[in-house]
């Protein structure tokens, strides 16, 4: 039995299978996005700030650029929340009976994921440049700062993968919307022809020879009197 619904989701109202849900590629990649956001937040929050002994103020390890640390933590916090929201959305997606609602969800997923992949690309370039200008970072901070940069880089591909999955779903929905009637799920079959009543003339009579088609010999001689 076909179990695929609109935009690549399951049939609305179908039974929920936890094992099949956690094995879905969009759910797995979204969980990876969540994990990467936690790592970036942890690396910067744990070792990204140090206190200057001369003035007693806190500075960011990335070339004393406070904006660099704030940017890395900021996009990761939002990515953390968004990843959880989209995982919940994957569960609710199967329960959406409206095709229009599913379309809006897929478009939001695709747009947000592509945009966040771009923000992580900007973050990777920003943190890499700031780290390259950092002189004599505090002892014990190098691994964390480099780790945050590395996982910003990995996050680019994770979020782009989410956008591609959403694009694939959108194409499935668009193809279904413009499919011919005989391919659309649940399309009404064409009505059968009506049988002829007994004794009715044949609508397709058998072939008969045309008139004057005899080839026999005919005597055209004049009669004798």
Automatic annotation (TrEMBL):
<keyword id="KW-1133">Transmembrane helix</keyword>
<feature type="domain" description="MARVEL">
    <location>
        <begin position="21"/>
        <end position="171"/>
    </location>
</feature>
<feature type="transmembrane region" description="Helical">
    <location>
        <begin position="105"/>
        <end position="127"/>
    </location>
</feature>
<dbReference type="GO" id="GO:0030672">
    <property type="term" value="C:synaptic vesicle membrane"/>
</dbReference>
<dbReference type="GO" id="GO:0031594">
    <property type="term" value="C:neuromuscular junction"/>
</dbReference>
<keyword id="KW-0472">Membrane</keyword>
<protein>
    <recommendedName>
        <fullName>Synaptogyrin</fullName>
    </recommendedName>
</protein>
<feature type="region of interest" description="Disordered">
    <location>
        <begin position="193"/>
        <end position="225"/>
    </location>
</feature>
<dbReference type="Pfam" id="PF01284">
    <property type="entry name" value="MARVEL"/>
</dbReference>
<comment type="similarity">
    <text>Belongs to the synaptogyrin family.</text>
</comment>
<feature type="transmembrane region" description="Helical">
    <location>
        <begin position="147"/>
        <end position="167"/>
    </location>
</feature>
<dbReference type="InterPro" id="IPR016579">
    <property type="entry name" value="Synaptogyrin"/>
</dbReference>
<dbReference type="InterPro" id="IPR008253">
    <property type="entry name" value="Marvel"/>
</dbReference>
<feature type="transmembrane region" description="Helical">
    <location>
        <begin position="70"/>
        <end position="93"/>
    </location>
</feature>
<feature type="transmembrane region" description="Helical">
    <location>
        <begin position="27"/>
        <end position="50"/>
    </location>
</feature>
<feature type="compositionally biased region" description="Polar residues">
    <location>
        <begin position="214"/>
        <end position="225"/>
    </location>
</feature>
<keyword id="KW-0812">Transmembrane</keyword>
